[in-house]
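Support request from a user on the community tier.

User writes: "When I paste my structure tokens into the form, the page sometimes reloads and wipes my input. The last time it worked, I copied everything first. Here is what I submitted, just in case something in the input itself triggers the reload:"
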């Protein structure tokens, strides 16, 4: 990545203008995942108890918050903080002590010899890995909210599991305290050796590294201090009223990319910070990007991204070491009872981008990175008879997958997943909002001059799904 510069130029201001899309990206497959060998809407965590809100601890759902390619036909899928769409206790944002986890899924992408899309995909859950820390974590005791403790009941002396409960934090410290047990995972990327993965979080925000086979956290990365809030709290409203700066509650580090060389993580906040939003002007649409040097563990650059018509960004994935696809969307569509309008992927280039460290939002907006439309998901799905009310509201996970052949031509694959908020699993949407995986195909020509070299494609097939069985997390 080239060295960033700080001076403001009219060339950069003009470069942020949206250019017409030229890509001819097509939908080639669509699959759903609603069951496993453990049963309907059951994952393979081996957890056999009920959460305090009445949901089963092994509930399968919400897994499209993040998706990452592992190797062969194997992907990793990431649910967020758990089933809090059903009313439980508003004082803790309806969250429960659901343990964040990573699902290993074989996708079984095959040519379709019948009618419909050119390929079929049949997702199969292979294993579920729970996320934990060897060092003790801070949990809420629940007494102030008349609820049980936020500590998962499977905790042991050596394993302290993370939890989606919003009160699992130290109120005497900022939201970036790494001892907090609360974790709201939003994006996942696999290290180049396939042995670990990186996960971004909204609560801190945090970026953590975990051992893939065990789920143990082994590292925390340094994010800009301005991303934290000084006074964490249990709900969006209470946290907003207590803080004048930092990430907006429940809109922290949403997207995470890993460069193909394996040396850099690029993370994005979901929306503008509290202070950038409050100032008004173009800065209210500015999302801050943190560029993290993996060897040192430190943030080395901060860049800016301006929303076009979406209300926020849900993921980012690397095309090569300096270009990325950004998932910008609204919250409309299936699961929201409305019609989807904005689910778009934009291509950005960080080469010569202006470092906005220390800039206010309105100043930073004048030097935001340039962007071009790569894929309009609502439009392409519409071309395949998926009406806007059937496009999932939360298109959140994006990843590149293995290449395929079609009509003698090589197609690269882009995999897109939705977070269904566990709504189908509760019957709230009556079986109409499953977790889905959309597979799009594109060629080198569709990239309009960009070189395709995504993370993970140098990974050997020997890394597979691995694991130690469906209840290995309880040992």
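"...and here is what came back when it finally went through:"
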């Amino acid at each position: 990545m080239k060295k960033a510069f700080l001076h403001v130029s009219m060339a950069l201001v003009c470069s942020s203008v949206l250019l017409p899309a030229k890509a001819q990206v097509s939908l080639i497959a669509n699959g759903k995942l609603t069951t496993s060998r453990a049963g309907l809407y059951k994952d393979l965590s081996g957890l056999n108890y009920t959460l305090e809100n009445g949901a089963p601890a092994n509930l399968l759902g919400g897994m499209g918050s993040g998706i990452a390619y592992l190797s062969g036909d194997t992907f990793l899928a990431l649910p967020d903080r758990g089933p809090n769409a059903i009313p439980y206790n508003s004082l803790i944002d309806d969250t429960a002590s659901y343990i964040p986890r990573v699902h290993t899924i074989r996708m079984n992408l095959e040519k379709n010899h019948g009618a419909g899309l050119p390929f079929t995909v049949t997702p199969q859950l292979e294993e579920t890995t729970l996320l934990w820390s060897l060092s003790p974590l801070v949990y809420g005791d629940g007494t102030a909210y008349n609820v049980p403790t936020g500590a998962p009941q499977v905790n042991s002396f050596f394993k302290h599991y993370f939890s989606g409960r919003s009160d699992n934090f130290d109120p005497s410290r900022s939201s970036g305290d790494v001892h907090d047990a609360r974790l709201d995972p939003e994006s996942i990327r696999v290290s180049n050796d396939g042995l670990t993965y990186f996960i971004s979080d909204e609560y801190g925000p945090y970026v953590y590294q975990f051992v893939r086979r065990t789920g143990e956290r082994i590292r925390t990365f340094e994010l800009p201090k301005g991303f934290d809030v000084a006074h964490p709290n249990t709900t969006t409203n209470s946290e907003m009223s207590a803080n004048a700066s930092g990430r907006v509650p429940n809109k922290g580090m949403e997207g995470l990319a890993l460069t193909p060389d394996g040396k850099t993580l690029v993370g994005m906040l979901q929306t503008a910070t509290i202070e950038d939003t409050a100032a008004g002007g173009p800065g209210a649409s500015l999302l801050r990007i943190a560029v993290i040097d993996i060897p040192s563990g430190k943030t080395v650059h901060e860049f800016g991204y301006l929303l076009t018509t979406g209300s926020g960004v849900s993921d980012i994935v690397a095309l090569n070491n300096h270009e990325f696809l950004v998932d910008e969307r609204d919250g409309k569509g299936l699961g929201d009872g409305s019609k989807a309008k904005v689910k778009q992927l934009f291509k950005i280039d960080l080469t010569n981008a202006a470092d906005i460290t220390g800039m206010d939002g309105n100043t930073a907006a004048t030097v935001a990175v340039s962007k071009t439309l790569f894929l309009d998901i609502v439009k392409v799905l519409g071309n395949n008879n998926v009406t806007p009310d059937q496009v999932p509201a939360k298109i959140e996970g994006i990843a590149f997958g293995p290449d395929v052949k079609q009509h003698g031509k090589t197609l690269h694959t882009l995999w897109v997943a939705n977070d269904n908020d566990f709504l189908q699993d509760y019957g709230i949407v009556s079986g109409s909002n499953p977790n889905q995986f959309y597979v799009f195909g594109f060629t080198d020509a569709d990239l309009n001059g960009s070189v395709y070299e995504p993370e993970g494609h140098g990974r050997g097939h020997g890394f597979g799904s691995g694991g130690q069985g469906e209840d290995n997390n309880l040992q």
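Agent notes: The reload is a front-end session timeout and is unrelated to the input. The longest strand covers residues 395-406. The mean pLDDT is 91. Escalated to web team.
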